[in-house]
Structure prediction request, 441 residues.
Amino acid sequence: MKSIIPLIAALVLPALSADTKPNILVILSDDQGYADVGFNGSKDIPTPHLDALAKSGLRCTSGYVTHPFCSPTRAALMTGRYQQRFGHENNPVYKPNDATEGLPLTEKLLPQSLTEAGWQTGWIGKWHLGATPAHAPWKRGFAECFGFIGGGHQFINWQPKNEEYNISLVRDGQPSDVPEHLTARFGTEAAAFIGRHTDAPWFLYLAFNAPHSPQQPTPEELAKFSGIQDPQRRKYAAQISLMDQAIGQTIEKLDATGQRQRTLVFFFTDNGGPLPSACSNAPLRGGKGQVYEGGVRVPFVVSWPGTLPAGKDFAAPVSSLDVYATSLALAGVPMPTDVPHDGVNLIPYLKGENTNAPHPQLFWRTGGGLAHAIREGNWKLVRLKDKPAELYDLAVDIGEALDLATTKPEVVTHLVAALDAWNKELIPPVFSGLAGQQKAH
Prediction:
C-alpha cells in the first residue's frame, strides 16, 4: 500500500490545488476623501456595505497609493511597478489617435499574466490608461469589458459624442447604452460577471468613477442627505452612498453564488480627496495632487473570510503596488525578473506569518521632480522643489504639522540619500498629459 500513496497524491493534489485558487476582486473608488467612509469614522456619510467589508477583513490604516492623482496610480496598480519607472507620471489626455498618451505598451499588465494562468478576467468602470485601440482594456488582458475609456464621465442623461465625459460606454469594444445611473450600472455589471463565473477562478477590476465630479446622484438618493447643509457635500455624500450600494450588490452576489470564502477582495481609493471641495481627508494634511498624507494615504481594506483575520486593523504600511504581487502569488505565477517590480505578496503579512513590515520604505514623486516623499517606519520626509526637506513622525503626528527636520538632521540625511537613490532608477515622464491641470481628473 505504501508504494501507491505517492502516486495517488500526485494524481489528486494538482486538481485540489487548481480548485482552491481564489478569485480576486479589486474595487477602486475615485477621489474619495480619507474620512468619507464609515470605517474611517465618517458620521454624515453612512457606508454600511463598505463597513461590513472592513469588518470581514483587515482595515489597513497605513494603506497607500503610489501617486496623488488618478492615472499614474492605476498604471502602478496594473503593473506592480512604480509608474515613474516607465514614465507614466501624468494624467494622459484623451486622444484616441495619440499612442504616447497612455500606459506604455511595453508594460505587461496583471490581467495578461492571470489570463495566461487560466483566470477569467474582467474590467468594469473607468479606464484612464490610454485611449488608442492598442491601449484599450480588451487589448491588455481583460476578456470581458464594460465602462468608459477616458478619465471621467457624466453619470446620467448624456448624449454620447467623441469628447471626454460624454463618450459612449463600451462593452468589449462596442458602444453600449446610456444607463439610468452609471454607478448603479457598474454594480449590476459586476454582479452579473460574478454570476457568470462560478467555476474557474477570476480576476475582476471594478473601478468606479464615483465620487469624482461631476456630482450627479439620483434625486431619491440626494433626498436621503437633506440634513447636510453644504449642497456640494450633500451631492457628494449621495454619490458615495450609491457607490456603497453597488459594492454591496457585488459582495452579495459573491455570497449568493457561494464564492465569498474563495474570493480575495481589495478596496481602496485612487488618491486623496481634492481640496478645496466637499471631501474630507481629516485628520490628514493636504489632498489630491500633494505628496502629504492627504494625497496618498487612502481608505484601504483587504478581505478574505476564512483565510485572513476579520475585524482587525493592520498598521504597517501597505501599497496598491501589492495587488500585483499578491495576485501572481495566489495564481502560482512567478514574479517577472526582466524588470524591477515593487510590490510584495501581502498574504503572509496579513495572516501574521511574517511579522516584518511589508515595505521598509515607500516612495512618491510627482511632475518629474516637483515633489518627492519617502516613508520609512514612522518617518515621513517631504521634499518640494526649491524648498528645504520636511520631516514628520507619523506615529505622533499623522497630520504632518510639526516639522522635525532641524532637530533630526541625521534622519533627514538618511532619507534624502534613500530618496535620491530611488530617483536614479526612474525616468522622466514620457507624456506631458494634463500636467498642471490634474484637478480636472
Summary: The radius of gyration is 21 Å.
